[in-house]
């Protein structure tokens, strides 16, 4: 008889109590360097839904807890990390989706506050930039905002339309670019790359 716990339960068992009590706050995963434990049957879909063993994680608090121990490493892979375990997971695009926008102020003084489907929030600023990549084949834009460390949130299409409505032209490296202001920073959203 196999008495081992499923990896997801094992992960939760090895989290410090301070992390468990603050599920929406990220854990100090940059301080933890356990050996690789294996692949976990968990993935995050492009729409931000977390799946474990083929089924969606329906409890928000549980998805928030897992998101707090998520780390993107230099190999381009995502891992769930505790002080003693490190499990690889699959992520279709990026792990978060910004589903709501609040705007404070106007013009160059406005602040754009994004909220994710897991109730994280971030103000776009120099440390949390907005970026847009464009699929070369379809021409579809993929807008992102940096949430924390090197973890980004895909900006939902409806939220991106709100940004487009607020967009203004501004000179960037001698080129007129279409973008938005937030916290005194201008972020191009036209998906073009300025020529050097």
Please, could you describe this protein's structure?
The protein has 196 residues and is an alpha+beta fold. The chain has two domains: 7-91, duf1285 like domain (duf1285 like fold), CATH 3.10.540; 96-188, duf1285 protein (duf1285 protein fold), CATH 2.30.270.10. Helix content is 15%, strand content 40%. The protein is built from four helices and 15 strands. The protein has helices at residues 7-13, 17-21, 60-67, 157-166, and strands spanning 38-44, 50-52, 55-56, 70-72, 78-81, 86-91, 96-104, 111-116, 121-123, 130-134, 141-148, 151-155, 168-172, 175-182, 185-188. A six-stranded mixed sheet has the order 3-2-1-6-5-4. A six-stranded mixed sheet has the order 9-8-7-12-11-10. Strand 8 (111-116) and strand 9 form a beta hairpin. The radius of gyration is 19 Å and the shape is elongated. It starts with 6 loop residues before the first helix and ends in an 8-residue tail after the last strand. The model is unreliable at 1-5 and 19-23 (pLDDT under 50). It comes from Halopseudomonas formosensis. This is DUF1285 domain-containing protein. Residues 27-94, 95-189 form the DUF1285 domain.
Counted beta strands: 15
Number of helices: 4
How many structural domains in the coordinates? 2
What's the CATH class of the largest domain, please? Mainly Beta
Straight-line distance between termini: 64 Å
Relevant CATH superfamily of the largest domain = duf1285 protein
In CATH terms, what is the architecture of the largest domain? Roll
Structural shape: elongated
**Sheet of most strands:** 6 strands, mixed
Q: How are the strands of the largest sheet arranged? A: 3-2-1-6-5-4
Using only C-alpha atoms, the radius of gyration works out to 19 Å
Give the percentage of residues in beta strands: 35-45%
